[in-house]
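User: Sequence recovery, please. Input:
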């Protein structure tokens, strides 16, 4: 039997076999019966990364609460495991029942970052599922994908049967019900896909044609049938308090990246940072009540035994009832040794005070994200924080005893100058001065300043912008590095080659799929891992497919250019994005829309959908 071979012959030979055995606390093991739907969630990275993803935790339990559905998990096998699987002819298998993935009805990938795309092809190949959607047979599973990167689905259009736009809890049951209905009627695979395309939020790329202009830009994307929607609207949960949230979460056997309870306090963000895709695509803000969250926390602590609860969202400090929630959680769990954590902190001294209350239970580092070194550039990107805000926040942090500070920056932003980069080093120096004011010296202090490279993302005000060349980004990294002095300041930065590829794929069209496939054929996988990343192979793939990567990464778009993602409707209008881009070039910031409506378009997106503060 496959299971016996895996357990007795394969796993003793690989690193961290717990990645592949399942059977964790709260994992679900259901007996498959005829007529049930088999769904496997596929995360295109290793177990430790995938098990930190909240979306899988939610949808896994939601689907398994259906009596007619079996939902299991699979993660990308690490290179040692893949080598043995290919040598021994072991197909990719699910964790719960060790069933070959090709035997499921659905294989559902989540698209969290572009540099995982070669892993998707590798997992399909290991499963024995044809890479190209057009080559799949009636018995092949439906390969579907969702998540933030799905908002530009075209680079994967060749490989995915259909994409799900928006929040999975809102649409996944409709997909399962439609599939069951189609199977009962004996419909073919092609007919099933056509039915799926009529579900709001579902995009079937094989039913849409992309054409190009002579200059290589996209001319349009049109459906092949008149009854198909011209635009695919994302699905949105209207009421978070009445939406599904699991009362149990799987507790892994091995350390994962986020090995704790993840309590999602709200979705969306109103800050409007102009580089931030998440801040645009997850609108509007919808909060859970603090009473609802407290009850969920009680159940999750009881069912998992975890000793830490992380309050997650895009900007947790903006939660309306943050103090009520935190103080009630502290009262509830302090005597039980359960700590509360916030993944990052808004630059505001008042929040440092709250954070200090949390850290009475457990103290760690504290993180702020000024993003840019000068006020001018922070206004361009609409960060809406000042240097005074930052200094007040770190002063409070040092007063409360913190000695480890992390500051996040981004380089290569539109309109950036060397003076803005100098400002990053100068901010670091001022943080040191504040520490000296509080403590008299720099003893014990560590300030880590980290700089990522700007990647223009679809559906943002900066989607028209060019990314700096790799040479220019590298020059900027060295410039900052040369200005930072002293052992208390550390400077780290991202690999510009990864940022370049991310920019190509994130704004790619269907032709980019040829590059992804070629790169995988030439051995690329786990591209976000330093030990596996091979930039030269990617460059060879571009050369062999005749695709110019600079066309996608380094070209500034005309304002009226048709984008490969224009047929995906996230609720925020293109007119709003253009307006915000113009304000960026004028150096004007835009208010947080919790204060008043800035007419981004989401307020009129769907009947019954309410923005923050609407009655």
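Assistant: Recovered sequence (615 residues):
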């Amino acid at each position: 039997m496959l299971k016996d071979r895996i357990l007795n012959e394969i796993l003793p030979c690989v690193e961290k076999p717990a990645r592949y055995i399942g059977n964790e606390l709260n994992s679900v093991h259901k007996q498959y019966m005829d007529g049930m739907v088999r769904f496997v969630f596929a995360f295109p990275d290793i177990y430790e990364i995938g098990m930190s993803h909240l979306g899988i935790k939610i949808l896994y339990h939601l689907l398994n609460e259906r009596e007619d559905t079996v939902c299991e998990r699979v993660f990308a096998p690490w290179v040692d495991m893949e080598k043995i699987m290919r040598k021994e002819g072991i197909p990719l298998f699910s964790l719960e029942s060790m069933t070959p993935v090709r035997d499921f009805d659905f294989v559902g990938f989540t698209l969290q970052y572009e540099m995982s795309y070669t892993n998707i092809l590798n997992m399909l190949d290991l499963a024995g599922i044809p890479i190209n959607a057009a080559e799949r047979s009636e018995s092949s599973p439906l390969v579907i994908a969702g998540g933030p990167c799905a908002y530009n689905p075209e680079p994967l259009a060749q490989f995915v049967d259909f994409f799900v736009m928006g929040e999975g809890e809102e649409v996944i049951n409709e997909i399962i019900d439609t599939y069951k209905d189609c199977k009962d009627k004996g419909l073919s695979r092609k007919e099933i896909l056509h039915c799926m395309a009529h579900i709001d939020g579902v995009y079937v790329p094989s039913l849409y044609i992309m054409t190009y202009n002579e200059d290589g830009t996209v001319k349009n994307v049109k459906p092949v049938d008149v009854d198909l929607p011209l635009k695919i609207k994302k699905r949105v949960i209207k009421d978070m308090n009445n939406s599904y949230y699991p009362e149990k979460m799987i507790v892994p056997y091995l350390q994962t990246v986020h090995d704790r309870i993840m309590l999602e306090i709200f979705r969306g963000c109103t800050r409007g940072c102009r580089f931030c895709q998440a801040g645009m695509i997850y609108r509007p803000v919808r909060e859970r009540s603090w009473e609802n969250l407290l009850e969920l926390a009680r159940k999750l602590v009881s069912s998992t035994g975890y000793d830490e609860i992380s309050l997650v969202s895009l900007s947790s400090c903006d939660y309306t009832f943050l103090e009520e929630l935190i103080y009630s959680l502290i009262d509830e769990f302090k005597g039980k040794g359960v700590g509360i954590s916030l993944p990052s902190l808004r630059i505001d001294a008042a929040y440092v005070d709250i954070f200090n209350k949390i850290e009475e239970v457990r103290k760690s580092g504290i993180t702020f994200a000024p993003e840019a070194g000068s006020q001018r550039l922070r206004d361009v990107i609409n960060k809406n924080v000042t240097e005074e805000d930052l200094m007040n926040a770190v002063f409070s942090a040092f007063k409360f005893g913190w000695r480890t500070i992390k500051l996040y920056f981004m380089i290569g932003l539109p309109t950036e100058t060397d003076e803005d980069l100098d400002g990053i080093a100068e901010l670091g120096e001022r943080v040191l001065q504040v520490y000296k004011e509080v403590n008299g010296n720099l003893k014990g202090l560590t300030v880590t300043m980290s700089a990522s490279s700007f990647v223009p993302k679809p559906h943002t005000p900066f989607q028209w912008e060019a990314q700096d060349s790799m040479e220019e980004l590298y020059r900027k990294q060295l410039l900052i590095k040369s200005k930072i002095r002293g052992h208390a300041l550390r400077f780290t930065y991202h690999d510009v080659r990864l940022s370049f590829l991310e920019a190509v794929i994130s704004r790619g069209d269907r032709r980019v799929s040829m590059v992804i496939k070629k790169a995988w054929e030439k051995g690329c996988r786990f591209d976000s891992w330093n030990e596996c990343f091979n930039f030269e192979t990617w460059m060879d793939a571009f050369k062999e497919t005749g695709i110019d990567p600079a066309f996608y990464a380094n070209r500034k778009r005309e304002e009226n250019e048709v984008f490969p993602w224009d047929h995906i409707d996230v609720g925020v209008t293109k007119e709003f994005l253009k307006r915000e881009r113009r304000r960026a070039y004028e150096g004007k910031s835009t208010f947080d829309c919790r204060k008043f409506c800035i007419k981004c378009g989401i307020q009129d997106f769907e009947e019954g959908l309410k923005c923050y503060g609407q009655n």
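The chain has a mean pLDDT of 94.
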